[in-house]
Specification:
Keywords: Signal. By secondary structure, this protein is mainly beta. The chain has one helix and 24 strands.
Length: 459
């Protein structure tokens, strides 16, 4: 039985590694702690570097200079992760790094001006994850059922597959961001502190967590008219949050050793899953009407589907990857959160004209009370006999948002391609994306765009 369990664990690890699309990678940066290899430490290191051209929202300036179009360079992510299987039941994990460092911002707290601690320099290194877990019921001990319990700063945040997405193997250049609906408000970069349970029953996989959200204290703007209140993140002494994600895996079974959901398997697995999830925190936001404060629950729901299917003759190694999800968010009345990845712009105080409601740079209404529909699909083109490692995967994505705060919905799209040099371990991604620009809450938005080239490497 011990040998069988060891084999299962190694098979799960190997399939996770091979899923990155590089058969030469083997077991990666792994140190075995015993001859059988079922006690080990594994290290993962990665960097995602962006070169980007952005059409700015009206009224933007960069470095004190007004602009409507700007080039930008930045480290989207530079991270390290280590996990150790101390025994067949006990595992610990630590994940740390930096995000969103540009030539002008994203540096350490207080960095500004010119010099050794100037604009954008020496960003803060912090922990993204730090937890331990214990396998109460290992695979094979109770028929089809398994159960693992854990606790710490963790990524088992429920809601959707995209909410727990791996950043190493996105189909598109990045997450659609709205799938991390609490990002850096009541969570720490998509994580909260708490306890979790995960496991399987045959083809059914479950993940649940109970967490103490990080405290928020934004002051709501007082409204004098009922119906015009705007909810903001203010949870005081936070109530516990509850989250879960439940998924049925019709074809190949995915590994759940780590929480990170694969975005594209590059034809190395045959996967079709349907899932549903939730997140709930009582009294997570507040509004003010005639100086009377009202608290509101945060209730987030989703249903989604994921497929990654090899196509045609096996020797061509073609595959289609697709994901679709419906998200229903309730943060309280008229809640809107405007975000922009690595936004480098500030407001131009001398601008004359209609500014974007979201603000300068590439800010957009990213998260809000209302409904979101998202879909993405990509096609891995046939491999070439003379250059089998060089692969091309064109893709497209579409997002439709209907937020209560705006009378008109918005639509946006992403189109691009992954240029694989060695699977996801060494790839270049090119992508053009649009975003909505609202200048009035009652009118349809206009659109701005940006072009991104990402250089990714991970070990």
């Amino acid at each position: 039985m011990k040998k069988i369990l060891s084999f299962i664990g190694l098979a799960l690890i190997s399939s996770s590694l091979y899923s990155q699309g590089s058969p030469d990678y083997g077991n990666g940066l792994k140190i075995n702690l015993n001859p059988e290899g079922d006690k080990y430490i594994r290290f993962i290191l990665w960097d995602q570097f962006w070169i980007r051209n952005t059409e700015m929202n009206p009224g933007s300036m960069v470095g004190g200079e007004p602009t409507d179009n700007t080039w930008n360079l930045g480290n989207r992510r530079a991270r390290a992760l280590a996990y150790a299987q101390i025994s067949k039941r006990y595992m610990i994990l630590a994940h740390f790094g930096i995000n969103n460092q540009t030539f002008i911002n994203g540096g350490a707290t207080g960095t500004t001006g010119t010099g050794g601690y100037g604009n954008g320099k020496k960003p803060q290194l912090f922990f993204h994850d730090a937890w331990n877990e214990y396998a109460v019921v290992l695979p094979g001990e109770a028929g089809k059922f398994s159960l693992t319990l854990g606790g710490g700063l963790h990524y088992y945040m429920g809601l959707s597959r995209m909410t727990m997405a791996s950043t190493l193997n996105f189909l598109t250049v990045d997450s659609p961001i709205f799938s991390w609906p609490l990002i850096d408000n009541s969570d720490q970069f998509a994580r909260q502190m708490g306890v979790f349970a995960k496991g399987k029953y045959g083809k059914f996989e479950y993940r649940m967590s109970l967490n103490k959200p990080f405290a928020t204290d934004l002051t709501p703007t007082n409204s004098l008219v009922s119906g015009n209140e705007v909810a903001v993140d203010n949870n005081g002494n936070p109530n516990w949050s509850k989250a879960g994600y439940f998924e049925y895996q019709f074809l190949d079974t995915e590994s759940n050793v780590l929480p990170f959901k694969v975005g594209s398997y590059l034809g190395t697995k045959k996967v079709f899953n349907l899932g549903a999830g939730f997140y709930h925190q009582a009294e997570g936001t507040r509004t003010s009407l005639n100086s009377n404060i009202e608290k509101h629950d945060i209730t987030l729901l989703s249903v989604d589907a994921f497929a990654d299917i090899p196509l045609g003759n096996a020797k061509h190694k073609m595959a289609v990857s697709a994901y679709a999800g419906y998200f229903n968010y309730n943060f309280g009345p008229n809640y809107i959160r405007n975000l922009g990845i690595m936004n480098i712009a500030a407001n131009d105080p001398n601008f004359v004209g209609q500014r974007a409601i979201a603000g300068p740079g590439n800010l957009q209404p990213m998260i809000g009370t209302g409904d979101i529909i998202y879909a993405q699909a990509g096609l891995l083109l046939p491999s070439q006999a003379d250059k089998p490692k060089i692969r091309i995967q064109p893709f497209a994505a579409y997002t439709h948002k209907n937020f209560d705060a705006y009378e008109k919905p918005s639509s946006q799209f992403d189109v691009g391609a992954n240029w694989f040099l060695d699977g996801h371990h060494a790839k270049i991604t090119t992508q053009y994306s649009t975003r909505p620009v609202y200048t009035s809450p009652t009118e349809s938005p206009t659109s701005k765009g940006e072009f991104i080239v990402q250089l990714q490497i991970y070990l």
